[in-house]
Please model this.
Amino acid sequence: MRTVLTLLLVNLAVMDPQSLPIQNGRAETRAGLSIERAIATVGGGSDAVWLAWRVPMVRGDRDLCSTWFDGGDSIRGAFLEAGVPSTATLQAPSTGVALEAGSTLVVLLRLVDGQVERVRTVSGSCPIDAGGAKMVSLEGVSSGESVRALDALTGTIVPGASGTRRVAESAVSAIALHADSSADAVLDRFAASDADSGLRQRAANELGALRGAHGVTILTAMITNERDRNLRRAWVSALSANPAASVGPQLLQIARTDVESSVRGEAAFRYTRRMGIAKLADALTILNADADEAVKRRVVSAIAAWPESASVPVLIDLTKSHANLVVRKEAASALSRSKDGRAMAYLESVLRDR
Model:
């Protein structure tokens, strides 16, 4: 394995932004061919064919590419067929990587017998090992066309066929990565529909993680308008994944005022974990003010998830002096799972004093 990874080591520098870094495959490029037409014409046999195209990717610090490690050796790349190859295939591109490659998205469809059986996405700079399969790269695909083609794949779910659901859910995730406003409209449609709970949850998660201020607006409305408390709790979790600064105050408001204790608990957990020691006063206010023991447990659990340098002193103080027995027990339990010397010393002192 070490020999393989050493040979596969990739050093990237300045590549043609229109080309795809595809290796170990029978590659060809098509211009002026629509995605729909390509699906119908290039994947008609039983042998797998990969269809690929490039579009602008939604802003954010992300690298959709795997890195394999073996001791001191590593290789960055996407292996489309199963496993890591037994022989070295990926080589360093002679012209390197385009500066804009990290802001582009490569969408990949695996076609067998004219049907899409897999959807994958990688960053524009990610070396691609096709595993010997045929690769057809489409030129000139617009973001709008890409979103529409992926949206069409979400309607192919066959009950009992897990592969079709995997394609649909992967298509929703791929849509969310597009830097195009049409992606918001598709995600909003799925998030607002209860026709398919799996696609609805996937859309909500992607709205939270990838769609910025728009995602905050939509998820906040969903939390307000949804009657099912389990779904509302799920929407709170999705909202918490959004990096926007406005999310913190939204979570705090929900934690303080929502009528459902399970929703308050989820918001309190997400807020406390997200904001950290800087907002300890807010966490303690929730801990003291909320009468529901489940909410109190969630707050203590969130504090315990902080780095031990911050969490251990707070947990010790809660164990020592908090008025609520449930809080004291939860804090002591969290300390018992810690390997921090202060936690161990405190618990030993309690045992000695009994």
Remarks:
- The mean pLDDT is 87.
- Residues 1-141 form one domain.
- The two ends are 55 Å apart (CA to CA).
